[in-house]
Amino acid sequence: YSGSNFLRQRLVLSTISGRPVVISDIRPKDEEPGLRDYEASFVRLLDKLCDGSDISIDETGFDLIFVNFLLHGQSAQFF
To answer: Could you tell me the pTM of the whole model?
Structure first.
């Protein structure tokens, strides 16, 4: 996939289905290109919820590779 449209939905569907997702060209022409802070926080949350996830974001934030394995079946405390 390319672009930032439905980024969070794509990540959630990847988590539920257990299939990896590659998203490229995330806001390449914006004044502030790449992932936003809230999107990066959401990726970190998914990383905590998944067991053995592999997340790769390039330095510019244009490209994101999200590979997850299993959702945790236990409760998590984030505060």
So the answer is: 0.78
